[in-house]
Amino acid sequence: MDFALSSDVVEFRDEIRSIIREFVTPEIADRMHTTGVFDAPELNLELGRRGILERACPGLGKGDPIEMYVMFNELEKAGAPYDGLAVALMIAAVVNKLGTDEQKERIIPSIISGEALVCMGYSEADFGSDLASIKTRAVKDGDEWVINGSKMWTTLAQVAEWLILLTRTDLDLPKHKGLTMFMLPMNTPGITVEPVHTLGTEITNATWYDDVRVGDEAVLGDENGGWRTMTTVLAFERGVMGGTNAGVPLLRHFHEWAVANGVFDEPTTRERMARSIIDMQVATLLTMRSAWIAASGGMPGLEGSMTKVFAVEAYQRASRWTQAAAGPAGLLQFHEEGAAGEGFIEYDARHSPVMSIYGGTTEINRNNIAERHLGLPKSR
Amino acid sequence: MSVDLGLSPDQESIAELFNGFFSNEAPPAVARAAEPLGFDRELWNKVIELGAPGMGCAVENGGGGASLGDLVVVAETVGRSIAPIPLIDHLAALSVLTDADLVAGEAIAAVAVRPADANGHWSLVPAGAVADVVIGVDGDETVVVRSTPPMSGPRNHGSMPLADRSAREGTRTVLGPASLFEVVLDRWKLLTAAALVGIAETAKELGVAYVKEREQFGVPVGSFQAVQHGLADLPVAIDGGRLLTHKAAWALDNVTDGLIDWANNEITDGSTLATMAFLFAADGAVMATDRSLHYHGGYGFAEEYDIQMYYRRARGWSLILGDSTSVGLSLADRLFGTVEG
Ligand SMILES: Cc1cc2nc3c(=O)[nH]c(=O)nc-3n(C[C@H](O)[C@H](O)[C@H](O)COP(=O)(O)OP(=O)(O)OC[C@H]3O[C@@H](n4cnc5c(N)ncnc54)[C@H](O)[C@@H]3O)c2cc1C
Fold first, then answer.
1. Between chains, do B2 and A274 touch, taking CB under 8 Å as contact?
2. What is the pLDDT of residue A239?
3. For chain A, what are the domain ranges?
């Protein structure tokens, strides 16, 4: 195996690092927690302006295919607000893979310039893990589609230009077969957005669709082929677009605090820290493997499940022991005097639970591994 | 494209050759028959014919010139089959030894993984019961001692050929300062890590095959989600351990002045990575054998079933280096610097 990045990729990485140093200021990192939007438009625009997003977007053929992994890995390790960018770039890659030429021309430039964000409307109030049962309807009316229904957890809907929306278009087909994916502008009439506040300061949304009218140009992938589009999205999402190294900034914050407070010499702490660092290396290697498979033209759906299960639980373990080791100081929030890791220890303890829920829960990922990797019989 | 996380075509052939060899020549019955000593001379003689003992040595010394990545592939096949031969120890010792009889495999070398005590005594040396040559640390020197192996030792959890050996009696050669031994120990940790990944892999296979066959309540027990989820963690730990082990091999072979920048998760120092791989693979092998044994139900506890042999070796092969807390703390020293005072 070869773990070295080529000199081109190292240059690319160093450019991203210098942009991060300039644009990911403490104020910007703080802003995500006051606005509830995990995104930094000025960072996106700079990455877009320098052609970095175009290079990193899979399938456009501009950079080394490993560059998307490299970019998100750097952003995540730095603790940058990058969720908005991750979703947008992932959807750009899906449009590039499954979209028509007209869609590619209309949608991709707005994303790789760093201007437009995308929100994802898959989950509904009653259907999350059992996504293929969703009920939001799209019905053909002449040349148009009319969409009615509602979605839950439509993160970034309050700021996004684009919406990718999973709908049911055929009631007679089996549940996975009667679905169609749409991609439409968020300012299309008939869409309502209501905020949903969370434990981890991130604000997500409930969204409603009342007689939303779009043409065929909004269908992404095939009519009744929505599940295939969904699988493509998930293969990119699970473990390639970041979300697998969240423990790195956490350990850094903890270490700074523990050294400054003279408690880092404690052997139990040192051993736990060393073991969490092993976990972070493994998480990164598993992520790199998914990225490498995707970059070699494969679909790392299964490997993504494996990466996600491991990385998320490693982060949750790290969050649990660092907060316990910090004691009362681990309870204090951002900007409070004496807060361990400047409040990040407390914050990560609130943020980490969501990682095993969204983007496919840990149980769904373990089902996936058991059935598709180990070949065990379906349990449902 | 940068980065290649697959085995090279050469390594694919090595894996195929050795997996084939061990499944023919060393099915679990061979490991069972070799207990309690844990050594099968006939099997060692056959492995000599494959050129395995000297494969990591330089070609000019009569060796095979294989890379560490290649040796990792071989070590994993040893773990998969729990073959009762000290190939891991031998390959590790030959990172610095070049004696012709060792390269040929006519004599066996062992690694005293813990330093000698004040009396020049190495305790519980892995492969110490059967090795003609032992390399290790005595005081502040790295020494090599040739002496007659006892061919017996204390009965132990992993059915390993352990024995106490003297660092002073026999033909003793001083190789250099104690620091020289680090290369040997790094390679021992690396190859043991790979072997532990192999143990985990077979434990997983045994467990999965069993739960597909065994029926309760009229269905295979492998259709129960609690069982599925317990097993689903195994390939994750195995793949993670394998990637980390190969990264350590790559770094030891290719990187000088590697990074230990944990705060940015950039670690390319081979020695650090070898310890990380060792700890991670040890945990993985313990978990995999635990779960696989458990999902066999009562039969997992029966001597007749093979999983118990893997269960014991997963613990034996890793604990012989020392308690895992000490190994973890030595890693912490490398990562964060030592504690003052
Ligand atoms: C902060 C946040 C942001 C999100 N952002 C988005 C977004 O932008 N777009 C979007 O579409 N969705 C988003 N989601 C939704 C997310 O993907 C779902 O929450 C997730 O898929 C789980 O669905 P659910 O919440 O309905 O839980 P349920 O499916 O009701 O699951 C409840 C519990 O049952 C378990 N369970 C369910 N089925 C099985 C099974 N077969 N076997 C074993 N256990 C099972 C689950 O693992 C879970 O523990 C977001 C969620 C959160 C919390």
1. no
2. 54
3. 7-116, 120-224, 243-372
The residues in B 48-87 lying below 8 A from A, measured between CB atoms, are 69
Q: Do A374 and B1 touch (CB under 8 A)?
A: no
Name the burial class of residue A84, with classes exposed (0-12), middle (13-18) and buried (19+) by CB atoms within 10 angstroms of its CB.
buried
Say if residue B150 is preceded by a cis peptide, omega within 30 of 0: no
Q: Does domain A243-372 have CATH number 1.10.1610.10?
A: no
Atom number of ligand 1 nearest to Cα A130: 29
Structure tokens given for A199: 């434990």
C-alpha B311/C-alpha B114 separation (Å) is 24
Q: What is the pTM of this model?
A: 0.95
* Predicted complex ipTM: 0.95
In angstroms, what separates the C-alpha of A252 from chain B's closest C-alpha? 6
- Model confidence at A63, in pLDDT bands (50, 70, 90)? confident
Interface touch B265/A270, C-beta < 8 Å: no
3-state secondary structure of A196: strand
Give A25→chain B minimum CA distance, Å.
17
Which among A29, A32, A84, A27 is positioned nearest to A241, based on CA atoms? Answer: A84
Would you state the pLDDT for residue A107?
98
Going along chain B from its start, the domains and CATH numbers come out as 184-336 (1.20.140.10)
Cα A326 to chain centroid distance, Å, stands at 29
Q: If you measure CA to CA, which chain A residue comes closest to B283?
A: A275
Each residue's pLDDT tens digit, A15-45 = 999 999 999 999 998 999 999 999 999 999 9
What is the homologous superfamily of the domain A120-224 according to CATH?
Answer: Butyryl-CoA Dehydrogenase, subunit A, domain 2 (2.40.110.10)
pLDDT, tens digit, 9 for 90 and up, residues A187-234: 999 999 999 999 999 999 999 999 999 999 999 999 999 999 998 888
Going by C-alpha positions, the residue among A372, A236, A378, A208 that lies closest to residue A308 is A236
Which class does domain A7-116 fall in? mainly alpha
Query: What percentage of chain A carries pLDDT values higher than 90?
Result: 88
Question: Is A372 in the B-facing interface, judged by CB distances under 8 Å?
Answer: no
Q: Whose CA is nearest to atom 22 of ligand 1?
A: A128
